[in-house]
Design brief:
The chain has 262 residues and is of the alpha/beta class. The chain has a single domain (2-260), classed as TIM Barrel (Alpha-Beta Barrel), CATH 3.20.20.140. The chain contains nine helices and nine strands. The strands form two sheets. It has a seven-stranded parallel sheet. A two-stranded antiparallel sheet has the order 5-6. Helix 5 runs parallel beside helix 6 and helix 6 packs across helix 8 (223-231). The longest helix has 17 residues, at 146-162. It is globular and about 50 Å long. The chain binds zinc ion (ZN) (2 copies).
Length: 262
């Protein structure tokens, strides 16, 4: 089994740190991990946050704090290079989780030039600057037009896929982090997304991150979206979005069962 979305940023870039993740992976029958880091922790990725950091006071402070602690991309690259020379008991890949906004495709293309990462996964974390999944910026679904939000969310997702910049699409259900589940039948849009993923040779994540980090009651994609991805043969990679060793591989077995049941 695979865990295609695991972050290392909460520890020092040491061998001992990554071994803790691998130990948990082995216990949960995971034989491959995709490690990745958020672009917001790197100095070189500053431009990507122009709009989000101007959206409101909370987001401005959030990014300013990240920026004050930002590290050079070279720290991560050096770590990857060191790890690639070690024979670990499971397969490892190293990449980035990029916050996608259509305004910054050129910036992402430039970051991509800096190092031959094994993969880049694109995430919709912002809708026109609004960071909708921040725990300190919780929102009530009754205050929003959910249909309108989902239209925009899926439009951004389609443009992420068609940008040709990414190997995968991260947590495609993240807008429901505070219970705002899609209310309409989006079959037509799911088909469009699935076809675009196929023609761009991309995978989609079946992610337990929302269940783990937000207590989402639904594990992974909603059944309609998952069924559509299976129907179009989109590669589906299970992913925990773990930020700590003990969350690696969490609910991966259960998500494999959901995929198999389609
Ligand atoms: Zn994410
Ligand atoms: Zn993540």
């Amino acid at each position: 089994m695979i865990d295609a979305h695991v972050h290392l940023e909460k520890g020092d870039y040491t061998i001992e740190w990554i071994e803790q993740f691998i130990d948990y992976a082995i216990k949960r029958n995971i034989d491959e991990i995709f490690f990745l880091e958020h672009t917001h922790i790197f100095k070189e990725c500053h431009n990507i946050y122009n709009e989000m950091s101007m959206y409101n006071e909370y987001q401005k402070n959030w990014y300013q704090k990240k920026w004050s602690q930002a590290r050079p991309l070279k720290d991560y690259i050096d770590y990857i290079e060191k790890l690639k020379h070690i024979d670990f008991p499971i397969h490892l890949k190293f990449g980035l989780e990029v916050c996608y906004s259509p305004e910054h495709e050129m910036d992402v293309a430039q970051i991509k030039q800096m190092y031959p990462f094994d993969f880049l996964v694109g995430s919709i974390h912002f809708i026109d600057g609004w960071a909708f999944s921040h725990l300190r910026q919780r929102w009530d679904k009754n205050d929003y037009d959910i249909d309108e939000l989902y239209e925009r969310y899926y439009t951004l997702m389609l443009s992420l896929i068609n940008s040709g910049l990414f190997s995968g699409l991260a947590h495609p259900q993240s807008l429901q982090c505070y219970g705002a589940y899609p209310q309409k039948d989006y079959q037509h849009i799911y088909s469009q997304l699935a076809q675009a993923l196929c023609s761009n040779n991309m995978y989609i994540e079946e992610s337990s991150g929302l269940a783990i980090n937000y207590g989402d009651k639904q594990l992974g994609m909603n059944p309609n979206m998952l069924e559509c991805m299976v129907k179009y043969n989109v590669p589906i990679l299970t992913a925990s979005d773990a930020h700590l060793p003990q969350n690696v591989g969490l609910y991966i077995k259960e998500m494999n069962n959901l995929i198999r049941a389609i």
